[in-house]
Amino acid sequence: RICSQCGGVGGDPKGITQCQACDGKGMHILPGQLGWPQWRPCSQCQGAGKRIHPGSICNCCKGKRVVKCSKRLEVHVEKGMRGGDQKVFPSEANESPNVVAGDVIVIFEEQEHKYFKREGVHLRMRKRITLIEALLGFQFVVRHLDDRILLVKSEPGVVYRPGDVKAIMEEGMPAHRDPFTTGNLYIELEVEFPQKLTEEQARMFARIFSVPRGVPAASGTQEVKLVSVDIEQERRKFQHIENSRHRKPAYSEDRTEENDQNQCRTQ
After folding, report:
1. SS3 of 158, please?
2. Which residue has the higher pLDDT, 44 or 262?
3. Could you point out which of 62, 115, 224, 232 has its C-alpha 20 to 30 Å from the C-alpha of 25?
4. Are strands 185-192 and 122-130 parallel, antiparallel or unpaired?
């Protein structure tokens, strides 16, 4: 802040004189590269353009015209604010004599949540359920951002599929500066299938559901087997093969065609 004792002049005005080294300009002009001049602060007056007699120097700022101080700024986060929103404190930046003080700008960043993902005014989460729950129903609890406990129950008689998205209305985020608008909470269901079924489980499912008897095999049909693979690894492997094919010499086909023409001339 500007020194309140001397008003930002650095000392007693009677003991302040113009700097003779820079003629009160506070800067020196020096020759630069390509003929462009360079401006350097005066080393005698530190760019102030004035010099203070040692006996007239301000005891508070020691002639620096500004003093260090701290000020506590309280930041209020409004409901519905998003990452990238700003809070501005006008004229709260560092002060300097004859210069307008700037602003202090606080930029908000959203911290990622363990369960919820924000999409505007809406919230989105994923919930894994078992195959039995997907078929027969389920219920689970969700601890909301304000520590409320929500009991979520499935709809009677509904079979849920992987990727189904259900909504809890008005349980999302409040709209910024709009107290009458609230987003929704969307829950994406992930159905966890069992790795294997026992014979008893298979018979149970066969009694409940109609199991297809299979497709009659036509003549010449070849039976194949399904195997488990890592699809990303398979893509990388075949991409490597594809890249190797494209790196073959471009003249190989031309050389083959040239050899064929030579053979025709010989015959």
Report:
1. coil
2. 44
3. 62
4. parallel
Helix (H) or strand (E) holding 153: strand 149-153
**232-236: long-range contacts at Cβ-Cβ below 8 A with a sequence spacing of 24 or more?**
none
Give pLDDT tens digits for 141-190. 999 999 999 999 999 999 999 999 999 999 999 999 998 999 999 999 99
Whole-number Å distance between alpha carbons of 19 and 25: 8
Cross-strand pairs, 141: 151
Question: Rounded to an integer, what distance in angstroms lies between the CA atom of residue 95 and that of residue 8?
Answer: 10
Residue 134: phi and psi, rounded to 5, are -65, -30
Alpha helices in 137-230 (DSSP H): 199-208
* CA 18 – CA 44 distance, rounded (Å): 11
> Within the chain, what is the greatest distance between any pair of CA atoms?
115
Q: Are 78 and 86 in contact (CB under 8 A)?
A: no
